[in-house]
Amino acid sequence: MPTVSLATLFSPIAFRPTRRLLGGAALALMLAGTAPAALAATPKDTLVLAWAIDDIITLDPGEAFEISAGEIMGNSYDRLVRFDPADPSKLYGDLAESWTVSPDGKTFTFKLKPGLVFASGNPITAEDVAFSIQRAVKLDKSPAFILNQFGLTKDNVAQKAKAMPDGTFVFETDQPYAPTFVLNCLTANIAAVIDKKLVLEHEKDGDLGYAWLKTNYAGSGPLKIRDWRANEILVLEKNDKYHGDKTKLARVIYRHVKESATQRLLLESGDIDIARNLEPGDLEAVAKNDKLVTTATPKGTVYYFSLNQKNPNLAKPEVREAFKYLVDYDGIGATLIKGIGEIHQNFLPKGILGASDAKPYTLDVAKAKDLLAKAGLKDGFSVTFDVRNTQPVTGIAESVQRSAAQAGIKIEIIPGDGKQTLTKYRARNHDLYIGQWGVDYWDPNSNADTFTRNVDNSDNTPAKTLAWRNSWDIPDLTAKTKAAVLESDAGKRVAIYEDLQKTFRETSPFVMVFQMTEAAGVNKSVQNFKLGPSSDTTYVYRVTKN
Fold first, then answer.
1. pTM for the complete prediction?
2. Kind of pairing, strands 274-275 and 46-51?
3. Exposed/middle/buried for residue 342 (C-beta within 10 Å: 0-12, 13-18, 19+)
4. Considering only CA atoms, which of 330, 347, 338, 314 is closest in space to residue 399?
5. Which of 111-120, 137-146, 407-416, 484-493 has the lowest mean pLDDT?
6. Which of 16, 160, 290, 392 places its Cα 20 to 30 Å from the Cα of 516?
7. DSSP designation for 301
8. What whole-number distance in Å separates Cα of residue 95 and Cα of residue 80?
9. Where does residue 240 rank: exposed (0-12), middle (13-18), buried (19+ CB within 10 A)?
């Protein structure tokens, strides 16, 4: 094919304002097939990032619950309040101008900023806020538990989350939780405000626009979603109707590139501006390049692998403990996660209230063998391991596979993309699964609520937490987790979370491996790119380019 410069490919004509971007084949050729000799720097009004985005399943904030999707939601949808990435303890109004809390601590009333509009041009009203909360509860997808924990149900949400005649939005909880806890939950993507009029125009058979919003956009954020092609590309473009400081970028393009070495080559050639999945060796090489810089931020994201308790062998307490002694933590820390994480054996990441830095486990094959013998499995057993085929998770899984083999456990690794492995995991059809969990809001309950709460272990429960996904039936821990969010004394609350983590370390089917330090390689032409502490606080719309 003839060579074409990037300046031509990113011209206003190529990106004329139509709903769909380009045909899949043309888009793939544009972004992947250009001859190296013709490559030039990306345009100044366009930010191009290489990132593994195969975990994106939907663009509906009522369902989106993955790391990559979180970032997209954070840049494209507003919510009532947000927290400051530089200081997560500070909350500020996004669409809300102000809010009050009733004397009994159960009713939150929000006054909206005047003159707000969606990207569609429709006005943003309290009706839209109420519809968004009600819709999320009624759809009852994976992240709905963030709202359901306040006593919201399909039957009562219309009375508990409602627009008032004076134009305010009222949110009523079932108990007097700490106000910061409630507000932090409302910073989560599940509480994003969507365009009621636009969504209902696309409703089919009473689905509240669910089918349409999976691949479309109905928000008001600084960037709007232009196009998404699974496992290929996601394009955001400037929202000229945004109420705050408008981005100086015309568009942001996420290219799905999984391999670290490929990302590094694209960055070095100027074909991308930012590389997001660099492994330690490539990160070191980027740091030595005088045209590039690296940046890193400790994330509220922890990596773990888990044992499905539906498997009778994995349900044995001794087996759960044995696996915690079959991880080469030191080796993983020194190689696979060097510069991109640190060993961490607790479900609360550092930086969150009540986090623990206890690390009682080390690689000890002999101890693991003793535990397996006590479980009646001295000759070992066979098990499968569902693994997303990206690094460092593949490397960690292979390391565990080698260690477990020394104890007689035969692990078959089943690789897949993010959607494949997540779908199987959510259906509780796995044996072992390796995954990551990022905080949805900056409060310890964000992680405790999923790792140590399982209100109903039946297959059809609406509360499908990580504990539920692994069929870990824990009524006592569930009760303690609930009590923690009602404790108003900060010191006592910390003590509850420390106790929860100790019990979790000793008894859970989760093997916590490390806390993520997100790192990226960045072209020096890029300014103001800051990785956020949570998945939805990396605000690419604030980026400028020289």
1. 0.78
2. parallel
3. middle
4. 330
5. 484-493
6. 290
7. E
8. 5
9. exposed
